Amino acid sequence: FAPWNDPNAKPYIQFDNVTKKFGDFTAVNNLSLTIFEREFFALLGASGCGKSTLLRMLAGFEEPTAGRILLDGQDLRGIPPYRRPVNMMFQSYALFPHMTVENNIAFGLKQEGMPKSDIEKRVAEMLKLVKLEQFAKRKPHQLSGGQRQRVALARSVAKRPKVLLLDEPLGALDKKLREETQFELMDLQQELGLTFVVVTHDQEEAMTMADRIAIMDKGEVMQVATPAEVYEAPTSRFVAHFVGNVNMFEGKVAERAANTTRITGATGAQIVVENGGNTAAGADIVFAIRPEKIKVSSKKPVDAVNALEGEVYDVAYLGDMTVYHIRLDDGQMVRASAMNASRVSDDPLTWNDRAWVSFRPDAGVVLAR
Ligand code: ATP
Q: Which residues form the ABC transporter domain (predicted)?
């Protein structure tokens, strides 16, 4: 499933140069974005970046100040929320407290005037979908947080919208339940064949669930890509920093050849990388590399193209992995992580030990400063 790589794939949701202003303040700035049918799409960004505003415009709660939003080729301008094939599930999933689970789910269907027997069928189907058949007669306060969340979900898909919008859907759940629910949401999306657009500020959540992620900052999209691309090939410092941990080596491009780029750091240390991006010799750049791409060893690694010496600043054992901070001799702090595949590391390094960090030329990306 990768319609974004297919030049013939039909766009499903299109934000076309959309701007949203609140008075003088620009919440969404001339933003264009395409989402495909059946995609699980995440809008990821810090508080205030405009992601909820984008979702609310798609739902019809706000109208763009400029630009268009299309759904399946149809311009949505002027179409009220209830007439859009879109439903929204909110963070504070306000269930009706005095209604049973089944009545909560049936509410929207009744309002729509669906015949009673059809409602009963649909509600049963929805209860089965979210595995709450035996809770049909309970009220929300008699449910756990996760169960309530599933009722809210069942309610929001009961009308069979084509697109489900989720604004921080799992924000109220604790970490463990949130992770479980992420997988449930993915299964549900597959099963229903719907397009999901989720807003989150939690990068792990976006990475786990989404087919593609749009990373937003100040009302603009910084990058749209699959989780792997966003992590492995960020196109800006902002994205590299926003998703996961990263080391940044500042330097200048000293030499640019067909396949290799030589970078000189501020203190003269040299790094050789394979992907120089479109930087030219003399350019000020940063080399961004993820902690797990860096190897730490007590001896100078033989054959390593890039090896820098320093001292262990601290070591943190996290169970699944160990995280090292190495202070290089030029003063730069490097974070490196190693999975604890075997029980005991065969190269145990501890605080203040001399250490080498090494990495392959293709292990990171060169970005504009
Ligand atoms: P959060 O995760 O905190 O909800 P967000 O990225 O979803 O953040 P938005 O809710 O889209 O951010 O808001 C983007 C910006 O627009 C914020 O600075 C917010 O204060 C502003 N904003 C949103 N709605 C309005 C409004 N109705 N009137 C004025 N300003 C608004």
A: 13-243
